[in-house]
Specification:
Blueprint: H1 4-30, E1 32-37, E2 43-44, E3 52-53, E4 84-85, E5 99-108, E6 111-120, E7 127-129, E8 135-137, E9 142-154, E10 158-164, E11 170-177, E12 184-191, E13 196-206, E14 209-220, H2 233-240, E15 246-249, H3 253-256, E16 279-280, E17 296-297, H4 303-313, E18 316-321, H5 341-355, H6 361-368, E19 379-382, H7 389-405, E20 410-414, H8 422-433, E21 438-445, H9 447-452, E22 466-474, H10 488-503, E23 508-513, E24 517-519, E25 530-532, E26 537-539, H11 541-550, E27 556-562, E28 565-566, E29 568-570, E30 573-580, E31 585-592, E32 598-605, E33 611-619, E34 638-645, E35 648-653, E36 657-664
Parallel strand pairs: 1-32, 3-15, 15-18, 18-19, 19-20, 20-21, 21-22, 22-23, 24-25
Antiparallel strand pairs: 1-27, 2-27, 4-7, 5-6, 6-14, 7-13, 8-13, 9-12, 9-14, 10-11, 10-13, 16-17, 25-26, 27-28, 27-30, 29-30, 30-31, 31-36, 32-35, 33-34, 33-36, 34-35
Helix pairs in contact: 5-6, 10-11
């Protein structure tokens, strides 16, 4: 007879198998059962469902997306030598020292323009530009230097341009030969030998005398699509990777301006770059906790460039224009109704600029700038987030004028800066009466608010305006707090809320997180979707949530329910489902805002599904976890697989997780 010890391994194996089967049976019986109707389309998902909102805040344009590395290149700041240093000059005497630079203002080419008059007395005179919190240069890369110069006296024959590190070490240089008293543009290429995050541009002079300088510029050659004097490649790539359905620009509160004189005027941002007028950025001293008095707009990134960027990304352009109201959080200055004509003309002329034939005034300018084909503009926004009777009164005039001349253009209106309250209720009521087409809603609220309001659009009037959630972001501390973080709780809560927007895709047709970008040392507002310094950039957890939705929008909204009800946070579970008709795929988005894993059995009805399911999972046990320059993808999607058999998908949804399932239908 065999020893009991010889039989023990088999007994243990049998016991283990029975235990596993028992646990699986218990898991299956304890699983929540969800049902997806994969056959019935409840609404078409608009191609514009997920897009990008760009505003020039946090040094997002100059010092960010616009790749110019020289700050105050034409000496137009209020303090016109801002950004420029003269370490070896004698600032107080014209008769001693190595030299001095003085800003001169004169009328050149019919425009008021500043330039720098430099008197060089000795070979130690230096002129440096500090860049935007430094200049990021990369070893092996080449940089295009251009400047305008006119030699007015003496024997100055050359300018040596050097890129130097923080210790003054030269990492790249080029020499320009200059001559003549007439203004000329000089160009050179600087090759860089070392990577430096905070370099400076240094100019020294061969000879002595007097020379005038203007439009001193330095750009990387490696820009987006290789365009000279174009956009920063890595930042645009992060945007393009989102596959956005639209690009809303240029803001935001900069559209309105603190005063009407400082509003954004698109006509001043097109045409030759050297003729575009500088403007102080309305965010430069907005917050006491982050004053940035050196924050200006050169408009090198102007409306033509925004349209071009939209085209590059396959996104619908959505420009927002002033409606004759300065920011109501600042001065609230109003244009009288009988003086609104120029503002309306700006809107009509912009449509002509974007879409007009080349024989029209503004269509010709677009063509002269290198784009004879129209940009096919379909949307235009009237005002940013104005509110009250003054806004409604002005909106009506704009809407009538635009529709009269361009009936196919969709006019975007606004419901104010908040998602509720008296101002919001009044705006929505009036805009509904006026049959407004598309209303822009803004909300910056706590993560809890986002989790609790996933049903926000369930009861909206289906005969009312369509909705554009144009600015939203969970605030970890409070609105505009400098201590806000792009942590996982905020991103996870946004993912939960977005299931509610997707479930209501019949009425919510555009959505965009805000703000988009922030310089690590030049920011004013947090949180922000993308952070960058002079050399690198990373997407936050919020960025990857947006990317998961935007890269998997589907074409048709489907229902996903539990016991016949939509999943809107019951026991911490949120869900939405779409079908991609082009690829015949079912895409399920599940969000678990609780700490415990959830066992789910998902029954797919109305379509055959078997085999491997692709998954993308974002998960972290730490709700305060964030991405960083050191760990840029700490919280980001991880690819995996699951299995679906006979239309049933059994899965375990981790705690604090956002998981996307792509099911190939047969």
């Amino acid at each position: 007879m065999k020893s009991i010890f010889a039989l023990l391994p088999g007994i243990l194996l049998l016991f283990t198998a029975c235990s596993v089967n028992k646990l699986q049976s218990q898991a299956s019986s304890n699983a929540r059962t969800l049902t997806v109707d994969a056959e019935t389309s409840r609404a078409a998902i608009q191609p514009t469902m997920y897009g990008i909102f760009f505003e020039d805040i946090n040094f997002a344009a100059d010092g960010g997306l616009y790749a110019e590395m020289v700050k105050n290149r034409s000496f137009e700041f209020t303090l016109p030598k801002t950004g420029w240093l003269e370490p070896n000059s004698d600032r107080w005497s014209m008769n001693e020292g190595s030299g001095i630079g003085a800003v001169v203002k004169e009328d050149r080419s019919g425009k008021k323009a500043n330039y720098l008059k430099v008197i060089v007395k000795g070979d130690k005179y230096q002129l440096l530009n500090e860049g935007f919190r430094g200049m990021g240069v990369v070893a092996g890369q080449q940089y295009d230097l251009t400047l305008q110069a006119a030699v007015q006296a003496g024997n100055i024959s050359g300018i040596t341009a050097q890129i130097v590190d923080g210790a003054g070490k030269v990492v790249g240089q080029a020499t320009l030969s200059v001559s003549g008293s007439a203004w000329k543009t000089y160009e050179a290429v600087i090759s860089v030998a070392e990577t430096v995050e905070k370099a400076q541009l240094k100019l020294t002079f061969t000879g002595k005398g007097e020379i005038d300088l203007d439009m001193i510029s330095l750009f990387p050659q490696d820009t987006w699509k290789g365009r000279k004097k174009g956009m920063r490649k890595d930042l645009v790539q992060l945007l393009d990777d989102l596959q956005p359905g639209f690009l809303r620009f240029p803001g935001g509160c900069i559209v309105e301006g603190r005063t009407l004189d400082r509003r954004y005027q698109w006509k001043k941002t097109v045409g030759p770059v050297e003729d575009r007028e500088f403007l102080i950025n309305r965010w430069n001293t907005e917050f006491d906790h982050r004053p940035t008095p050196d924050y200006y707009q050169s408009f090198g990134l102007g409306f033509f460039e925004y349209f071009q960027l939209s085209e590059d990304m396959g996104a619908e352009p959505l420009p927002i224009l002033s409606c004759g109201m300065a920011c109501q959080f600042n001065t609230g200055e109003l244009v009288p109704m009988d003086e609104l004509g120029p503002y309306i003309d700006d809107a009509l002329d912009l449509i002509e600029f974007a879409n007009g034939a080349v024989n029209t005034e503004w269509g010709k300018l677009r063509s002269d700038m290198g784009h004879p084909e129209p940009f096919n503009l379909k949307y235009i926004g009237v005002g940013n987030e104005q509110w009250g009777e003054d806004y409604i009164e002005r909106y009506k005039v704009f809407d009538a004028a635009i529709k009269s001349k361009y009936p196919d253009i969709t006019v975007v209106s606004g419901s104010g800066p908040f998602p509720d309250g008296e101002m919001f209720e009044y705006g929505m009521e009036e805009l509904t009466k006026l049959n407004a087409e598309l209303v822009d809603e803004h909300y910056y609220r706590s993560p809890e608010w986002f989790r609790q309001n996933a049903t926000r659009y369930d009861d909206y009037d289906r005969n009312g305006p369509k909705i554009f959630a144009g600015e939203y972001a969970a605030q970890s501390v409070a609105i505009a707090s400098p201590d806000n973080k792009n942590n996982w709780e905020c991103a996870l809560s946004e993912a939960a809320y977005m299931t509610g927007m997707e479930r209501n895709a019949d009425i919510v047709v555009m959505t965009s997180y805000a703000p988009l970008m922030a310089h690590a040392e030049g920011w004013q507002w947090t949180p922000d979707m993308i952070w960058f310094n002079n050399l690198s950039a990373y997407g936050t957890a919020n960025y990857y949530v947006q990317k998961m939705y935007a890269n998997h929008p589907g074409t048709d909204l489907l229902s996903i329910t539990e016991a016949g009800k939509a999943l809107t946070g019951q026991n911490d579970l949120y869900a939405s489902a779409v079908r991609n008709a082009a690829t015949n795929e079912l895409i399920i988005k599940l969000v678990n805002t609780g700490a415990k894993a959830q066992e789910l059995s998902i029954n797919i009805k109305g379509a055959k599904a078997n085999g491997t399911v692709k998954t993308l999972t974002m998960v972290s046990d730490a709700l305060d976890a964030v991405n960083s320059f050191e760990e840029p993808t700490k919280i980001s999607p991880v690819a995996g697989q699951a299995e679906v058999s006979k239309g049933m998908l059994n899965t375990s949804l981790p705690g604090y997780a956002f998981v996307l399932y792509t099911v190939k239908l047969q």
